[in-house]
Every structure is written in structure tokens, then in C-alpha cells.
Automatic annotation (TrEMBL), chains A, B, C, D:
Record GO terms (molecular function): L-rhamnose isomerase activity; metal ion binding
Protein name according to UniProt: L-rhamnose isomerase / sugar isomerase
Record key words, sorted: Isomerase, Manganese, Metal-binding
Lineage, opening ranks: Bacteria, Bacillati, Actinomycetota, Actinomycetes, Kitasatosporales
Biological processes annotated in GO: L-lyxose metabolic process; rhamnose catabolic process
């Protein structure tokens, strides 16, 4: 029997990284709806992230996106974060928003463009040195839209070359997290389309290269928890970009489209020994139509709830049912945990941490939304393009 | 045996409408890559469309998108088109790019927003009166991102109410083409997500309401030619928005992802009596990374090639094989037509129409690309947002 | 606020029909794994169904499948059911397992095959007269595997003709439930592939023709609750075939793959006024590897749990949040109900009905499994083919 | 410029393996439609395969499936094949049709079942020794239907253990081809669901372990040619199981659902140096409703046509267009080859090989179908279960 106190202890030390860009405006190709109070600077994003952490207690780090969060003084930004109880997390590179990248970045047919992209990636490692970040997250929009447009295999060679150069540059405690994505913005081939491709590259690179699983980046029907189990078995699961979707890379709040899937994923994390600091648990979402800060709080809570349920699985009973091939009993053990209402347990955990048991209500009462709506008038709101 | 001369005659009178917005910039949510020479005004878009028609001979009309093509004098714009051998085609409404439309347009919970959206739709009919356009194309981005966000059924009521008001306003020769889309930009529910929903609304409205099939707007694996056959049987196929995709609504050049599917669609059009002016054959594509005008020329040619193959199907032999249940023979008759290289036939058709047999090469030789690159410096390039 | 007593009352009168064939053997094209104790006759299937009803209290009817449940005396079979506290439910026709049906049944190119299929459907109505069944469930395996194999539209005509003949034969209180399916066993076209096609046919036929939604019969990503809402609005939702799936028509236990989806479906049923005897709630599943009777009990419980959560939604609060466009609040109201652990509530309902609060445990204690394993040796086990 | 004579030479030496089981009966879970003249023994299957080779000239080997093709004297069977101009190809293991395999084979929780499955695999290597086959093809139906049913990771361990034991047993020139499959017959997890999992296992095993790509075994939308390119780059592409599909693992005739995809796959094979004897090109199809032998002939021809087009791609022009980033020109080079009608070229190739230019017509004229219909009366027709 899982002791509730052990579950609580595990939940207290949970750490979910929020992405700086989720505090800014985002949208679809059809329209970006601006929201009042959106941050205009990296520091204002950190201010918002600090609210999320203040109310949840489990969001102590913030991922940066370069160049969207470019500042002159990264060490200064790190100090700013620290003063607010935060630290800076993964550095996310961006090699898809320059006009030069129309046909790709590190996989581009033109060596000059590849060089430019590589320089950006290396710059990101410089930034990591300054911020003290452990993880470099690499997502490449590279791919092609039309059969024949470029040579699939040559692009793999170019990719491998760039990755090797970046890997070489990594310092002692630093890691490279390679993200894969099924499609978008490329619509025919994507150069890192699946976990297998990411895995194959990471394997050649070495131990510091790890695969990151974005929960919205798979073909329809893909069993994500299986991938998690396999990557953990291979020692190659670097972390998650959490979000959810009904269709493609919808980037909805994690757990909002299929909470049962999120639970199954978290169960494999726990079962495979991946619940701990070696695995980066990050959100990567777009709050296009809903209020951003409470949506992020809600997302953090959704991950907490899935984790709590995963931790509550009676693994001894599960193993016993599995061992004797009792399909229904084994499934019932798992569902028992899933069907448990863990909100009271999490309310207790929060109270034990000195927090309000209802983070969303506490946020709404805090007046923060009204304050930033008032204070952040004028200037240019942060968004994907800035 | 299908007489080649009849096939040629049918191909000569083909009409494929090009969309004004495909001449402007487009992209994904990640980046819009601007291209040199892109039109800055509706008139410049018509200039480009005139080049497509000049080289292909089968693209005589241009669809407008309001407000992207808003002008003071629509009759004047129609005259401008006529002077270039074109006429104005379908009017496409846009009720998704105003901040008010964050939660929908005609399905919005707020009656004031619905009224605003309806007014826009009615304005589009006014524009049709001025341009002489027959078809009002309605695509609604309306939907929700999260379960519970709004009431699915209430939104249908609101939709029905708006459609009825627009239908009422249509003049004698005017039609309403209702488009459906599986998802995007809404990621949980879409208010017109499938042909069934569009059909049910059109049925209640009356004969002037017809369904338009966008070839990129279906769930994975959907058999589009089946839908075409059924809609033609029901007298409810108003037209097509042509494009192609490997994944979601990729908006690639029609025929580039699955040319066999395009052939099968055109075969059902021909077989079902839908090849003629009652069916609107329109392109609706995004040329995000490729040169726009030659991409549109190529797209028009792709539709021509699929049509030629569809017209070449030996329907007598096909019926005979079908009637006796000879699966392989029936399939072989269809494949015979598909496997035919129809490019020489189309080259002949073009020459008989006084055109260059190779439209892409002729376009490249024409110097138009160089000219617009030079002439259209400065100003603001057209795009989805303007 | 929803009164718990009203919720309990609604749960007590719930009725979930179990399918006779789920008690027999089933499998995939690769292998049917026989299980001990499987019924050999329709009466033995009813014996098992009676156990499910005895333990759950909400499974009072059993669907028959003809010819799998063919008997000489249907009135006698109905009496046999009645003696066990059951009544006979929907009659399911089968026009796909005769060698004649290789290329279809009512859509077959050969009129003689069509006539044979139609005769079977009419026979099913005769059986309904004898059993007192209200609903004739029609699922057609008809379709084609290869482009060109048969004429899509001609098959629609043949289908319409057969449906009209069956409709004509229906008695006063009888209904025809037309089922659609995305694919399988046909792999290119399916003659009733989506709700739109089923709806269009039912509309022409009249009020007694209704659409049945099998939850495993949709394209990947399809929003089923939307279809439910639309069909209820149109007065055309006849019922459900419940099961669940991760991939295609997996026919797993309902609620086992995506319990949140099942909840959303049941919410739309409740919201749209579909919770009542007019809607047929049936299971249609295959218990290929798990013990059948407890799997069916579990499935019934899964529907109960989803229904309880749907009934618990605070619709007033939901409407209020929806009306003011508060995306997160509206979503939270729905999720509140979903996240509730309704198992204690259902245990109370069962106790109030004089039942064991834990139907699965009660079944296991009952000794039924051991008894049928012993008693049903020899003979030929029931399965899809018999 | 590709010299036509080189293309012809390449086409003449093409080798496409046909599967013994495709000559037998097959079907869906709903029905197996028996066909007249179907073989009753492995030798009769070889007789049919000899006809396919006689008419096409490029189908010189036949894959066996154990136990469906179990005989007492495999060397004798190999001689029988040789006398008919054939040789025996890959040995396909079957660890999914015994009652013991309800919950898996080499991944089963029970060690005794795993041992039984392993013994079968080792027996298959014995058979390879006798037949002189190079390739052992491993497809595992292993997986689970319900979350929690078994431990995902433990099953990977068991799988790895079995694969290692088989690998150890392989002789000098022998290889193990590991097949992956998205789903079916398992509906929740599949133990080798994607190329990444197969690749990871093969990598650990060594050079004799290679991945086999079944073209019907992917998630919707998966870019198969990308996987081909990547596996060739990694030296891990062992071969293909060719078939085609619109939906899931439909097992239709290769090239019938998406001929353009087949061409793209063959292009990557050619481009990546995979066109040659190291890559096993096998059919794996089900001719459920169409005549089997002509369907197989047609399938062989479809592969030939796709190969011819792939060989005709002007790779120099393609590289040039790719190098300068001319998206449309590069796509046009590829499409030029695809749009070519290669049937006249293949007719010439056949005539140069002393064959009838139209293999299907020649088969129909040969009287073989009538002869086997007459001769093979009585006895038990071969099928998946025997």
C-alpha cells in the first residue's frame, strides 16, 4: 500500500517549469488576440511567473526563449528571478523566425544559413553559462513542404553536423534536449519528426543529449506513455513539454483534452524512475483565448493531479494482477487511482506548504490581474514574434 | 470509348477560380515569410491573376476576401478586372480577425458580436451586388477550445439564425456556399466541422444554400470523393476550395500531396454531373515558401491534369466491370486513365487555345516576376491581415 | 445546484442494453481466443445477461443478432428472458456473413443479392413483432476496397431503395436505427461512413428512422459529443452503440480508453434532453482477452459513472460562465463534475436498489463463473460466426 | 540524364518476393470469403507463385509462414520450388495463433509461454537452415488492450531477451528482420509499435538485425519515405512488407491506395542505395474480395511501375534545383518522373525478358485459373489459420 505521506512528500518536491512565452500573446495563423496586462519585457514575464509559483509552490523555474527573451545582462535577469523566488530554466533556441530560415535552419541547403543557425545555438549555450541553466532545448522547424523540395537524407547529415558542434560546446553540467514534432510548420517532411529520429541522433551524440517529449507532437493515436517507458528504459528521456490537444499541436492547457492520458504518462514516469530532477517537466502551451496566468496555474494543477493519481497507484496490487494475467483486475487497479478525487489531498499538500488550497481563487483574490492590466499600458506586448 | 475531341472540348471550357489572397503573403503561426513582388492592393492582385489566366486560359475569375480586398468602388474593381480579361468571383467573408471575435462571430455568446458579424455578412452581399458575384462563401472560424467553454447546441441555434438572415438577403441569381472545416483555429469544437452539419443547415435554408468542399478540411482518412458523390446526389454540392495536405489544413498546392485523390474527386464530379458552371472550382491555398504566381499556375495545371484523366475514364468499360463484380478489372479501368500521361493532351489543348503549351515556362520567360519585384517596392504587401 | 436526490433518481432509472454477442467469443482477424464457460445458445446468453442485470440493476434488456441468435420460437425466447427479469431489445440484422455478400448486401451490384439481403431485413422485422422489440438496428458492412470497384452513387440509390422497403414494413411503435461506420470491413468506401450519410437517409425516410452513434466508428479526432448535440437538435438521435477505442473500431470496454470523452458525450445527452427511453443506450463490444461477464458489468458501471458525472454538472453555473465568456470558469465547472469521484454515490444508489454496492466483487463471489465453466462443456460456443 | 538502358537493366534485375499466404484465403474479423481454386498445400501455393513469376519475371522467391506452411521436408519443399524456377525466401514466424498467446508471446508475463514462443522462433531458424533462407521475419502481435493490463517496460525486457536468444542462433549469412506495427491485434499498447522501437532493439543486437518496413503499419499521416531514408542512413533497413491502405492495416494491393506514396518510397530506396539484394522487397497483402493470383501480378506490376518512375528521376536536375532552393523546380523534377507513363517502358522490359508485355492478360489467357478451380476441389483450402 502506498503511504499517503510518501505521496504527499513527492508532491511537495514536484517542480514544473513554466515557459516565459506562455505569459505573452499567442494565437493561430488566423489571428493573435491580444490580452490586457500582457508582459512587455522578460522581467514582467518573470513577475507573472512568480505569481504562479507563489500560488502553486511547484513552479520554481522559468524557461527562456531566445531571441524573444533577449536581454543585455542575463546574469542580471537571473538575479531578478532569484529575488522573486525563481530561477531560470531551459534555454529555448529559435531558428525559425528569420527570413533566412524560409527553407530551414541547420538543415538548410545553403551553408551560410546553417552557419548562422549554428551560431545562434552556440549563443544559447553562452546564455546558459550566464543564467546557470542546465538544459538547452532544441526544436527545429526544419522540413519541407513538397516532395522533392530537398534531399531528406542530406538534411539529416546537416542536422547531425550541427548537433555535434553544439554538443561539443556544452559544459560539464549542461545537457541538450532534442525535441521532435510530427508536423508544422513543415507540411511534407519534418527533419526531426518522431522520437526515433531524435533518439538516433542523441545516441550518437552521447549522454548529455536527451530526447524531450512534447505531448502535442505526435501522430494521431500515438501511445505517448509507451514512448516514455521506452525512453526511460534507454536512459534517454530528458523531459517533457506539456500541453494537450484534440487534433494537432493545439497547445491547449495540459490535461484539458485527455486527462486520462496525462495520468498514464505520469504513471510511466513514476514507474520508470523518471520522477525527479533529471527529468525536466516543462509546460509549453498557448493561451490564445483564455486568461494566461490562471490558465498556467490551472495547468500546473492539472499536472499535480495527474501526478498524485500516478503516485497513488497500488503498484504491488498492480504487479500481482499483471503477473497472473488478470486483465480486468490489473486495469481496475490503475483505474482505481485514476478515479480517485485527489483534489482534497492536493489541498492538504498546499496547506502544509503554507499555500492557499485553491490557487486559482487565491490568484483572483490577489488583485494581480487588475494591477497588471492597469500598470502595463503602453509599450509593446510580448508575443511569439518579440 | 471516350472521344478525345469531347475531352478536349470539356477541358477548354474548364474554369478554375483563383483566390486574391493567394497572391499575397501567408504563413504559419510561426512565421510569415514575405516575398518580393507581392501585390499591395486588390488591383495588383488582379494583375497577377490576369497573368495566371493569360498563361493557362482556364482561370478567368478571381475570388475576393473582405475586408482584405475592401475598396471604395467595387464596380470599379470589377471593371478593372474585366479590362484584364477577368471577372470577379466569389465573395469570401471574414468574421475571425477582429478582436471581438475571440470567442466566435455568428455563434458568439454575446448578441452584439453576433450582430456585428451578421452585418459584415450582409455587407458582403451588398458587395456581390456591386461586383456581380454569384457566390457568397461563408467560412466560420467559430468554435471552442475547451470542453464546457460554450454550449454546443446553443451555438448551432445562433448559427442557424445568422444563416437565415443572410439567406433572406440573397438576390435572385445569388447563392450561399457554406464551408465546413474539421478544426483550426478552434481546437475542441468547430461549429461547422463536417459536411453533415453544413448539409443540414443548407437543407433547411433552401436551394440557394449549397455546401462547399475544401479538400483540406477533413479528418484523417476521410474519403472526400464519397462526400462529393453524396452531395451531388443530394443536389447540394456548391463548389470546391482546392488545396492539398499531408497532415491538417496544410493548404499546399492542390494535387501535390495526393494526385490520385484529386483524380478520384474529379472523377466523381464528372460522373455525378457536377462538371459545369453550377459547381464553383476554386483554389484556396497558401504559398508560404514557394513563388506564388508559378505555384498558382502549377496548381491550375494540376487540376487540369486530374480533370483530363477523369474525363478519359472509359465509363462504359467501367460500368461493365462493375456490373459483373470484377473488382480487378473495374479498378484497372480507373487506373488506366490515371496512369495515362495527359500532359501532351493538355499541351495540345493549350495550343488550340492559342496558348503556350508550357504555362510555367512561358510565365518565367515573360519577365513578369522581375517586373513586379522591381515595381512593387515600398508600400505594404498584402497578406492575411490586410 | 443539482439536487443529489434527483441525480440518484435519474441513475436508478437508467437502462443500458447489453448485446447477446458480447457474451460469446470474439476476436480479431488474427485469432479468436475461446474462453471457458461461453454460452452455446441464445438462452445461455440470456442467462449471462441476467447476471449482469442482477448485479447492476440497470441492464434490463438484451439485443439480439440475427442469425447468431436465430431460434424457432422468438416469443418463447422473449418469455425465457422475462422469467429472468429481462426483456429482448434491439434486433440487429446481419447481411455480411454469407458468401453472397462478398461485394455487399443491399448495395451489391447484383439485384438478386440485394433481394436476399432485403428479405433478411424484413425477416428481422418479423422477429421484432414476435419479440416485441422496438428497434431494428441496421449496420451495413457494404463498401468497396478499391477505387473504381463499384459506383459510389449507384450504391447510394440501392441503399435508399432497400431502406425505404424496410421502413415501409415497420409497425406502429417500431423504429429503424441506422448505424454508420468510418471503415472496416470495407477499406476504400463504406456506404454509410458518417453521421451525415445516415442522417440524410433517415431524413428522407421519416420519423421512425433514427441515427445510431457507435462510439468507435469515427475518423481519428472526431468530436463525437458534437454529433450527439447536433443529432439531438435535429431530433434524429436514436441511440448509441457504446464501446471505446484508441485506434480504430477496437471495441474495447466503453470508457476504458477515454473516460473523459464518455463523460462529455453523456453530458450532451443530458443537456440535449436525450436521457430517457427514446434514446437506446446499448453496449457493442468485444471482450477478446478479458473475462466477458465481469467486463460487461464493468462497462455498465463505466457508463453509470460517466452519467452520474454528467448529471452532477452545475448547469446554472456553467451557463453563467458561458454567457459572460469566461473560458476558464466554464471549463472549470465541467471539470469539477468530471473530477468528482462518483463511486460512493453509485454505491449508495445500488444499495437503495437492494444491490451489492460493488457489482464486480458480488459477481465474483456468486460462483457463476465457476458454474458455467463446469456446466457449459461440450457443444459449440457462440461466436460471431454462429 | 538517366540513361533509359540503365533503367531497364535495373528493372530487369528487380526481385519482389511474394508471400505464400497471399495465395490462400484471408479476410476480416467479420468474414473470410473463400475463393475457388485456392491452394490446399504449400506446394500448391508454390505452383501459384510460379505462375506469378512466369508472367512477371521479377517474383523469383516465396516467403513462407510457419506454421501455415509447415511440412515434414523443407529441403524437399525448396527443391520443389527450384524445379518451378523459384526459391524459398523469408521465413515468417507466427506466435499469435495459439491459445497460449492470448496475452502475448515473447512478452507474455508467464515465462512458460515465452519459452514456447522462443522455441518456435528457434525452430524457424532451423527451417531457414533447411530451406536456405536468408531472412527470419519477426512480427509480434504482442501488446495489451487495456491500460494497466501489463507492465510496458517489463514487456520490453522480455522482448529484448527473446530477440537476443534468436540472434545468437542465427547462422553466418542469416538475418533477423524485425517488423513494427502501429496497432492490431493489440489495441492499447503494441510492444513494437514504431520504427524507433524496432531500431533500438536491432541496434543493440548487431548487424544481422534489421528493421522491416510494412507500408501499412504506421499512424495516420506518417511519412514513410522519411523513415526509409533514415533507416538507410543508419544501415538498418532490412526490407519491406508492401501493401497499401486508406485507413489502418488494410493490406490492399500495394500502390492501389496511394501510388504517389509508393513512388516516393521507391525514390528514397534508390537514392539511399537500397535498391539491391540487401533489401528484401516483399509483398504482404490480403486479397479478400479480389481474385488472388491476378491481384498479386497486379501488385508486382505496381511496384515495378513505381520503381521505374523512381529510376527515371533526373537526379542531377533535382540536386541542382534543391541546391539553389527552388522549391517549385525541385518538386517539378520529381513530378515529371511520376507523371510519366512507364507502362510502355515496362512492356519493353518484359519483351526483352521474353515475357508477354501484359502479364495480367497473359495470365487470364493461360487457363490457370480455370485449371486450379477444377483441380483443387475438396480438401481444405489454405488460410491464415492453417
Amino acid at each position: 500500500m502506498t503511504a499517503v505521506s510518501a505521496v504527499k512528500a513527492a508532491l511537495r518536491k514536484q517542480a514544473i517549469e513554466t515557459p516565459s512565452w506562455a505569459y505573452g500573446n499567442s494565437g493561430t495563423r488566423f489571428k493573435v488576440f491580444a490580452q490586457p496586462g500582457v508582459p512587455r519585457t522578460p522581467r514582467e514575464k518573470l513577475d507573472d511567473a512568480a505569481r504562479v509559483h507563489a500560488h502553486t509552490g511547484v513552479a520554481p523555474t522559468v524557461a527562456l526563449h531566445i531571441p524573444w527573451d533577449r536581454v543585455d545582462d542575463y546574469a542580471g535577469l537571473a538575479r531578478y528571478a532569484k529575488e522573486r523566488g525563481l530561477s531560470l530554466g531551459a534555454i529555448n533556441s529559435n531558428v525559425f523566425q528569420d527570413d533566412d530560415y524560409r527553407l530551414g535552419s541547420v538543415c538548410h541547403p545553403d551553408a551560410a544559413v546553417r552557419r548562422k543557425a549554428l551560431d545562434h545555438l552556440l549563443e544559447c549555450v553562452d546564455i546558459m553559462d550566464a543564467t546557470g541553466s542546465r538544459d538547452l532545448k532544441l526544436w527545429f522547424a526544419d522540413g519541407t513542404n513538397y516532395p522533392g523540395q530537398d534531399d531528406i537524407r542530406a538534411r539529416q547529415e546537416r542536422l547531425a553536423e550541427a548537433l555535434a558542434a553544439v554538443y561539443e560546446r556544452l559544459g560539464g553540467g549542461q545537457r541538450m534536449l532534442l525535441e521532435y514534432k510530427f508536423f508544422e510548420p513543415a507540411f511534407y517532411t519534418t527533419d526531426v519528426p518522431d522520437w526515433g529520429t531524435a533518439y538516433a541522433h542523441c545516441l550518437r551524440l552521447g549522454e548529455k543529449a536527451q530526447v524531450v517529449v512534447d505531448t502535442g507532437h505526435h501522430a494521431p493515436g500515438t501511445n505517448i506513455e509507451f514512448i516514455v517507458a521506452v525512453l526511460l528504459r534507454e536512459g534517454k528521456l530528458g523531459g517533457f513539454d506539456f500541453n494537450s490537444r484534440f487534433y494537432a499541436d493545439d497547445d491547449l492547457m495540459v490535461g484539458s483534452a485527455d486527462p486520462f492520458q496525462l495520468f498514464r504518462i505520469m504513471y510511466e514516469v513514476v514507474r520508470g524512475g523518471g520522477y525527479g530532477p533529471r527529468t525536466a517537466f516543462m509546460l509549453d502551451q498557448c493561451h490564445n483565448i483564455e486568461a494566461k496566468i490562471p490558465a498556467i496555474i490551472r495547468s500546473v494543477m492539472n499536472v499535480q493531479e495527474a501526478t498524485a493519481k500516478a503516485l497513488l497507484v497500488d503498484r504491488e496490487a498492480l504487479s500481482a494482477a499483471q503477473a497472473c494475467g488478470d486483465v480486468l483486475a490489473a486495469n481496475a487497479v490503475l483505474m482505481d487511482a485514476y478515479n480517485t478525487d485527489v483534489r482534497p489531498l492536493l489541498a492538504e499538500v498546499r496547506e502544509e506548504m503554507g499555500l492557499d488550497p485553491d490557487p486559482v481563487a487565491a490568484y483572483h483574490r490577489s488583485g494581480w490581474a487588475e494591477r497588471i492590466t492597469e500598470d502595463r499600458k503602453g509599450g509593446r506586448q510580448a508575443g511569439w514574434g518579440a
